[in-house]
Amino acid sequence: MAIVAFLALVAFSAVLARLTLTPSPASEGIAGSNLRPGASLRQYADTYSFAGACKQVGGNLLLGAPFGLLLPVLVERRMRMLRVLVVTALVMVLVELAQGALVEGRAFDVDDVLLNTAGALIAYALIGRLIGRRYHTLAEPSKRTGMGIKFPGNGPRYRSRPQAGKAPAGQKKTQQKPQKKTQKKTQQKTRQGAQKTAPKKTQKKPQKKT
Length: 210
What we know:
Distance between the termini: 113 Å
Number of strands: 0
Helix content: 55-70%
Order of helices and strands: HHHHHH
Shape: rod-shaped
């Protein structure tokens, strides 16, 4: 599953580059860099129609959503949500910097970075967290089975078979105790039988002197 997630992330990166790094000559005189958080959002609300504002905001949220779905499979469990947000923000900052420096008709916009990161957070909270937990739970080696796969539920789906000539640990205790008791009983019986069959020593009385 990790390989599939990595390949999907690579494919999405190619799509992201195609969407964000394509020149837009029609917006050459309109696009301007924005370093103030919320300025572009206010512009969407004031000058754009409702459909146009939803398109801008929703498009940026969707661009960040795949990071929230795929990165939980690839990153470690410790501080997973923070790792997803940091990686998403860094990638989007690099994309916006490339847009402002290299691509015609596009500019750096901090609100796009915030919306992309928010999209990754929403996707992680809804689905990505469950996907990452499920994958890492199955990938952890089970101490009970030793098979490298841990199955959810009350117990493992496949239990490890005991090796030939070795009884399970739970049976060793039940077998050893009666053996010790029977050994003690047989030793006591043999001692008692030996005492009964052993000839008694006769003591010779001293003869009187005549």
